[in-house]
């Protein structure tokens, strides 16, 4: 399909080849009205991700806002694609250092994915981490710590303490504790992370 071919080009960073394929697929879906709502919204999300890779932030924002509008009209309230769109747009605003815009979108994505997948699903770890960073950037440290802890708990359960993602998440939480002058909590967590990484006991 056009979408699959565009995805292949995108993964190979062949942006100029991928964009017209996504656009052609989107044009076909939009001509059909709401006959293929999931395919249309998914294509818009994929095109927005392409724009993000190209740092075409205005184009990405425009198409994501339109996709969210259509998804609310065409799809169920808690459809997973609504979470994907909200997360992508939230990521755009986080990249642009606009955490106040990113936070409600990440929260919306989290609510949907918790409803669909459950509170400890791996898909929620990245959203908790995103929210942890966004709240840190507005100096709402208790909220930041809450979400970073949740992300770390999920990663412990799903991929183990020695996984690189888990260790990176531990460092992110430790950084928030440092920013909030909770030095002892940060020290203990970093020591635990070092022990997990090395397999040795530190003191």
Order of helices and strands: HHHHHHHHHH
First-residue to last-residue Cα separation: 57 Å
Any low-confidence stretches, pLDDT <50, length ≥5? none
* Cα-atom radius of gyration: 19 Å
Largest sheet: none
Mean of residue pLDDT values: 91
Shape: elongated
**Helix-and-strand structural type:** mainly alpha
Number of strands: 0
Oligomeric status? single chain
Beta-strand content estimate: under 5%
Number of helices: 10
The helical percent reads: over 70%
Structure description:
This protein is an all-alpha fold and 203 residues long. It has ten helices and no strands. It has helices spanning 2-11, 15-31, 37-53, 57-74, 80-95, 99-117, 123-137, 141-159, 164-179, 183-198. The N and C termini lie far apart (57 Å). The model has no long low-confidence stretch (mean pLDDT 91).
């Amino acid at each position: 399909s056009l979408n699959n071919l565009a995805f292949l080009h995108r993964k190979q960073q062949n942006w100029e080849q991928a964009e017209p394929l996504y656009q052609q697929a989107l044009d076909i879906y939009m001509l059909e009205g709401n006959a293929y709502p999931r395919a249309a919204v998914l294509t818009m999300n994929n095109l927005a991700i392409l724009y993000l890779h190209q740092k075409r932030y205005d184009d990405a924002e425009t198409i994501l806002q339109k996709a969210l509008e259509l998804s609310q009209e065409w799809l169920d309230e808690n459809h997973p694609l609504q979470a994907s769109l909200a997360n992508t747009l939230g990521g755009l605003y986080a990249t642009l250092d606009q955490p106040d815009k990113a936070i409600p979108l990440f929260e919306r994505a989290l609510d949907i994915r918790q409803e669909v997948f459950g509170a400890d699903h791996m898909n929620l770890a990245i959203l908790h981490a995103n929210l942890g960073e966004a709240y840190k950037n507005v100096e709402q440290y208790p909220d930041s710590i809450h979400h970073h802890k949740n992300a770390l708990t999920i990663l412990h359960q799903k991929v183990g303490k020695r996984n690189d993602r888990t260790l990176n998440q531990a460092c992110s939480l430790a950084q928030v504790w440092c920013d909030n002058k909770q030095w002892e909590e940060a020290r203990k967590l970093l020591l635990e992370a070092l022990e997990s990484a090395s397999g040795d006991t530190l003191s």
